[in-house]
Structure formats: C-alpha cells, structure tokens
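Listing S7. Sequence submitted for prediction.
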Amino acid sequence: MIAIKIIEAIANCFYIYTLMIFARCLLTWIPGLNWGNPILNALRSSVDLYLDLFRKIIPPVGPFDLSPIVAVFVLIFIRNGIIYGSLYLFQITGFIGN
C-alpha cells in the first residue's frame, strides 16, 4: 500500500510541475505583469530552468515559442517511464501484489 502512495506522490509532482509550465505560458500573455513579485519570480525561475533546455534547441516560430509544448511532452514521457518502471520494480520485489 505504501508503494502505491509513493507512486501517486511522484505522479502528483509531475502533474503540479506541468501545471506550473501552463501557468507560466499563460502569464506571458498578460502585458505589464510585474515579474518582480516573489511568487511570480519563483514560478518563472523554476519553470524557465527546465524550459531553457528546450529553448536552446527549438527556435521560436515568429512570435510563438513552441518549446513549452515539446517540454510538456518530454515531461509526460519521463513521468510515464518513472511510474511504470517503479510499478514494475515494486511488483517484482513483492511490494505490490499481482
């Protein structure tokens, strides 16, 4: 039972980070937003750390930045790999019944 709770916690962390990416992208559409606000600054710095990896590879298409789309897909792929891998490991070690 505790193994399932661990897997759920991992899935929730990925879900929250994905929501943070969406919030960051939506907030860029608001003109004159004060990014000096501590909450917005923390959101921007934590999300941009991950998005900058993709911004180096994917150039913007006109005024559109497509790197968050690719970043979310990669995040979902990593999340699924970790969750299914940990489910498999917990099953073969006997923490989760068949």
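Caption to Listing S7: primary sequence and predicted structure tokens for the chain studied. The chain has a mean pLDDT of 92. The CA atoms of residues 29 and 63 lie 12 Å apart.
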